[in-house]
Amino acid sequence: MSDTTPNREPVATTSADRIAGRLAALRDLIPEAFAEGRVDFDALRAALGDVVDDRPERYTFSWAGKRDAIRLLQTPTRATLVPAPEESLDWETTGHAFIEGDNLEVLKVLAKAYFGRVKLIYIDPPYNTGNEFIYPDNYADPLETYLRLTGQLDGDGNATSSRLEKSGRYHSAWLSMMYPRLFLARQLLREDGVIFVSIDDHEVHNLRLLMNEVFGEENFVATIIWQKVYAPKNTARHFSEDHDYVLVYARNAEVWTPNLLPRTEEADSLYRNPDNDRRGPWMSDNLTARNYYSEGRYEVTSPSGKKFRPPIGTYWRVKYEKFLELDRDGRIWWGPTGDNMPRLKRFRSEVKEGIVPQTLWTYGEVGHTQEAKKELLECVAFENTDNVLDTVKPSRLIQRIVQLATSPTEPDLVLDFFAGSASTAHGVLRQNRADGGNRRYLMVQLPELLPEPETRLRTIADIAKERLRHVAAVFAAEREGRLDLDTRDAPEDLGFRVFKLAPSNYKVWTGVGADEPEAYVRQIELHTDPLADGWTPEGVLWEVALKEAGIGLHARLERLEVGGATVYRLTDPDTGQVVHACLDETLPPDLAATLGLGREDLFVCRDAALTDELAANLALQCRLKTV
Asked: What's the pTM value of the predicted model, to 2 decimals?
């Protein structure tokens, strides 16, 4: 057991206690809202300028199970992520990561390391169309639920598949699944970040209300309509459903704006120069509008002497003096013979170098579902076509989203925690290839068993990894023939690191009653060594890095031999944060000096390896944490 001296501070064994952190922040901001250590909600509301009103009638959005969803959100996780270099590609150099595990638990594990670091989130969650429903959350012990679903726990009645709860179309179950995941996802977004969510007609209305609650109605940006099929379904009973939706919410709509789309040859072809204007090609635009304008009812005379007024119910969009000014400057087009209704000339040289994105996306622009399936089949050699995913999205759709929401000149991070077959990762790689960008992806996928497990492919996560390996091989082959044309500052990143959700490396104190002295003694004996069976130094280091230091999954690991001790050092290249760990049973007395540890450097070691003198010295030189 850990010593209680002030020099010894244990590492965190769970994700952050969200309630405690938020209460501390609230206490700092509004201290008058606390009385006797508890929140005085009437005082809090008064401090915020709200008159206390106990009337039941008010606008709210709720559903059966919302309280449990909130409790699930607030329950810290005991899980961690363990590295799987053997399943990865270019482990040592890549900045991309693929995580196998329940996305709620994974988001909790990532909360500290990726708080405010994600530029774009795209998710394609279950559409709740009546099929068997996955993600049966259990707020009491979500990690155990996950382990049972993936067959990692044995015993009578334990699950071997994640297809358990047949809750299709029960809106409450779907909302309870989505709420905590969206809440955690919002914490990861940068201030200039944005989230795109694919959905269909069954839940778009509920999703909109849920997103309003989590992100704020003021941060709603748009609802995109994606034409997902290229031919009508003649078997449809009522209407052929030809579209899905993509809801767009910004972390802060006052800050975020989409990038402009590149101009197309078709758009530029609209500009011509029939009058040989010295300012170059132009196109004409209507000078009238239906919006009432008090100074927009005047009469104008064309060069041929013909007079014009705006049609009934419309108005000129500019004042008379402004119209005369435009005409003198040659910006009014009266037609080839000078007697047409006047129109405004807009010059190509004066318009934006890009096109404002629209909310209607056709399959010709971004692909359709059949293209998506064909793309997946080209990447993955299925033994059984029953395993081909039905709801896969085309990488061109994701590429458009990445193009609008990220920068080619920054290492922007793209997160998808319903990764499926990794269409999002594919789209990121495609856009990096298109504009020379250095974006990174972070994918999370439940290793859900396939309907017919195969030799190589047993889960949806296996499909995703197979796809990413294939895309990397194809892109690498294409690159070989044009290396001289590559203008990147760094080599194109086509690899990915694999991590897997797993129980903590620390033993869990199960707790015993005061009237069970023998059981209590057994617990004490079990926790003489706080590390669980099967722990590895790398596993402990990654758990410390994520939960304690907030270091990302693309950090660089070094193994050092210092004075006969083995020290592991993990460095986050983005933030410069470093964590050192030595889990040997004894430590050399000059370890801190040899490593050059400073006051802000984190050093982790076994509590049992410290003498009081060594603990005191280390605590003076660096940030000391023990296990």
From this structure: 0.81
